[in-house]
Amino acid sequence: MSKYAYDAIVVGSGPNGLAAAITLARAGLAVLVLEAKDTVGGGTRSAELTLPGFVHDVCSAVHPLGVSSTFFRDLPLGEHGLDWIHPPAPLAHPFDDGTAVVLERSVVTTGETLGPDATAYQKLIAPFVADWDKLAEDVLGPLSIPPRYPFVLARFGLRAIRSATGLAESLFEGERARALFAGMAGHSMLPLERSPTAAFGLLLGIMGHAVGWPIPRGGSQRIADALACFLQSLGGEIVTGTLVESVDELPPARIVLCDLTPRGFLHVAGHRLPTTYRRKLESFRYGPGVFKLDLALDSPIPWKAEACTRAATVHVGGTLEEIAVAEGAVWAGEHPEKPFVLLAQQSLFDPTRSPEGKHTAWAYCHVPHGSTVNMAERIEAQIERFAPGFRDRILARSTKSAVDVEHYNPNYVGGDINGGVQDLWQHFTRPTFRLVPYSTPIKGLYLCSSSTPPGGGVHGMCGYFAARAALRSVR
């Protein structure tokens, strides 16, 4: 009889934890997932945060990485309840003159709205869209694995290594193309003058054309539910409402994978780690936080630019210069008066999100790490700027400061939803410099969170690669 209660235990049921568990279960291992909260999901949960019948995504909302993930695409998630909705356009970016740039699925159609920058935009984006399947495989992989398509990756890297402002100002003449690129690069949570913020703008733009920016019907919770359902169909076991305070509490297992940031991992396993490795994890850097605002609305947001109603995602921030100022202020520890707002209006395309005739809005802005400041008024003012009368349609609101975000999910240290700063240095040393970054000095103990490669986002690749590394050691 085996001395192990399970072959593998996964601590945490975010997308990466579930991806790790599925990978192990598909390999024939007996897997147990332990989750502190009463529901699975991590950053892919949904709840009625404002009024009954209004379903809000607690964290992630729009998922280009979800449909790009080579791991997710290999799973029958549609058979387990996941249904992607693709709005007519992936993204809209409004301006003060009542117009908006719209990122269309067609590169050519998008370029035609950029005036003098149509040709430059097409030359920048189109080749990568054509090679997206090759690029995705290498970009969403760990650095320890040699790229399968090195020439495609190298061509991308020459553009991506730059700052967003540097790339946009050198390639584009007009305000519209520069602002569109700045909004996408703003997802980096880094100052736009820093490298490699251009990589974020490029990747999000390429994905918009190649695979779209879809939303899950019924809420982001459906992603986690589908992953959990598939895991259980493989024989995997999930136990919720179980907070793991120490790895010493776990049942005997051959391997343990933790879907935790370095701080959480140190809490449960620090006493077992060598001093040198523990100090490296203690020096891991976390980035700015987010302030989250969810709204129940009496009717849709009244955008001055009607084109904004064609997209589930709207970047609210104005010009490249304005967005750069806002993001730079956050990095300097300040709260911008005019924050860059990332907004989603899922109920325009998914009637399950709200009662008939009513709507939801999901929005957040970046704030200094650990902020307690309420940014609701500033976010609403930014939306009102491009949608006069918006405030009159608010029925109820739910707010979370960066500290509240961390309290909800301890993996979001200081409100950092990205699992740690992803600048050039920490991209290559995530969470520390190690040939197999998912492994630890303790045999059979692994990290599989977004603090490992390839980093933040709902794609499951961190968990997948961590599980692959664990399987190699078992075998």
General description of the model:
The model has no long low-confidence stretch (mean pLDDT 96). Strand 6 and strand 7 form a beta hairpin. The protein has two domains: 209 residues, FAD/NAD(P)-binding domain; 249 residues, Polyamine Oxidase, Chain A, domain 2 (Alpha-Beta Complex), CATH 3.90.660. The two termini are 19 Å apart. Helix 7 packs across helix 10, helix 8 packs antiparallel against helix 9 and helix 9 runs parallel beside helix 14. It has a seven-stranded mixed beta sheet, with helices on both faces. Strands 9-2-1-10-16 form a five-stranded parallel beta sheet, covered by helices on one side. A two-stranded antiparallel ribbon has the order 3-4. The longest helix is centred in the middle third of the chain and has 14 residues. It is α/β, with parallel strands linked by helices and 475 residues long. 36% of the residues lie in helices and 16% in strands. The radius of gyration is 21 Å and the shape is globular.
